[in-house]
Amino acid sequence: MAVEDRAELVFDRIRAFLALHRLSSDPVYYAFAHAVICNPDGALAQSVATLTDGGIRLSARDIEALGGQTGTLAVVDPAAAAAAAPNSADALVAQTQMQVDGFSDMVRRVRAETADFGRDLAASADAMRGGGSTDNVVLLASVMLNRVQSAEARLAAATSEADQLRAKLAEARGDARRDPLTGLPNRRAFEEAFSERSAAGGKFCLAMCDVDRFKRVNDQFGHSVGDRVLKAIADALTSACPDHFVARYGGEEFIILFTGLGLTKARALLEAARETVAGKRYRLRESDKPLGAVTFSGGVTRAEAGEVLGAVFGRADKLLYAAKDGGRNRIHAE
Predict the structure, then answer these.
(1) Any residues with CB less than 8 A from the CB of 197 and at least 6 apart, and which?
(2) Are residues 161 and 220 in the same domain?
(3) pLDDT grade, residue 90 (50/70/90)?
(4) With a threshold of 0.70, does the pTM exceed it?
(5) Quick one: DSSP state of residue 185?
(6) Distance in angstroms (rounded) separating the CA atoms of residues 92 and 118
(7) Is residue 7 a part of any domain in this protein?
(8) Which of 6, 43, 121, 298 lies deepest, with the highest CB count within 10 Å?
(9) CA nearest to 273, candidates 313, 244, 302
(10) Longest C-alpha distance within the chain, in Å?
């Protein structure tokens, strides 16, 4: 075979070796592959054959243990890329899937390496009994130890990543159930809370509240002022009902679940909030001019254990509009 043909054959085999083990064309990897390909009967090639028997690919740590100095590699980590992306639901779902896939791959790899190590060690022991050198056994044990240490490091990193992902998912779940303007639970969170409360049994009440003439506030003073009014109402309801579930239902509507209270006490708490709001004299932050009276109306009804939300909500909503029709700035209950 001509020199040129032999060189091209060696190059093709090196390229195939790098592709098989998913190694880059880094000079260190190329030199390692060259040593294996050009001396197929040598100790290095035999060790590689032992380690890769069964389809296992060489890792960077394996190559280091076998004498290669890989240095720092620029590897793109998909999970890290997803973590750097905006904390959207899609990004978190993708990151979770990659985490699960990564754990699965790691478990399969460790299981295969553990099973093969016993077989390879037995084969090396047979070779020793036949007069072979102990060098291969020592090298094999060293590489396996490095693999175990590498697996432990990967597992620790994956566990840390899983903890961070769990925190992100909990935060995202909380954000999906919270109104960004007032910080209160939103309609979705309220519906879940109502289902839990109804299933638990015991007495509870539901109240619907609506800011009076809110459209006029927005039209006259702008939406930024309207937002501040909504925050003020949210604060008043939360302060007056600290042990109960206060949520923003949507727009200028708020909803409250009073747990463990009868109708009279629930109404009294809501009346206290209404009086607090009505008694304040709000002023425009920009000019210190008076905003005028800010009030809300409400309807409170008793709920029965197991009763569906639609029925209870319908009663509270009718009471709310009866309060509106009756002159606003008042609470109706039944």
Answers:
(1) 204, 245, 257, 259, 303
(2) no
(3) low
(4) no
(5) B
(6) 39
(7) no
(8) 298
(9) 244
(10) 105
Q: Kindly give, in sequence order, each residue whose CB lies less than 8 Å from that of residue 269, ignoring residues fewer than 6 positions away.
A: 240, 241, 244, 258, 261
Active site residue ranges: 252
Q: For the beta carbon of residue 25, count every other beta carbon within 10 angstroms.
A: 10
DSSP label of 86: -
Distance of alpha carbon 33 from alpha carbon 24, whole angstroms? 11
Q: Tell whether the model's pLDDT for residue 93 goes beyond 50.
A: yes
What whole-number distance in Å separates Cα of residue 235 and Cα of residue 300? Answer: 19
141 and 243 belong to one structural domain = no
More confident residue, 292 or 173: 292
The total of other beta-carbon atoms located within 10 Å of residue 275's CB is 15
Instruction: Examine the domain organization and report whether 164 and 112 are in the same domain.
Output: yes
| Residue 318 scores a pLDDT above 80 | yes
pLDDT of residue 72: 34
Please check whether residues 247 and 297 belong to one and the same domain. Answer: yes
Average pLDDT in the 128-132 region?
60
Alpha-carbon gap, residue 206 to 192, rounded angstroms: 14
* H/E run at residue 315: helix 309-325
Buried b (16+ CB within 10 A) or exposed e, 139-150: bbeebbebbeeb
Smallest CA-to-CA distance from 237 within 196, 205, 207 is with 207
Q: Which domain holds residue 290?
A: 187-333
What is the pLDDT, as a whole number, of residue 46?
Answer: 79
- The total domain count for the chain is 2
One domain for residues 193 and 323? yes
Q: Write the CB contacts of 297 (distance below 8 Å, at least 6 apart in sequence).
A: 209, 210, 212, 274, 320, 323, 324, 328, 329, 330, 331
Q: Which two tokens stand for residue 69?
A: 């100095």
**Claim to verify: residue 195 and residue 325 sit in the same structural domain:** yes
Q: 197 and 117 in one domain?
A: no
Mean pLDDT of the chain: 79
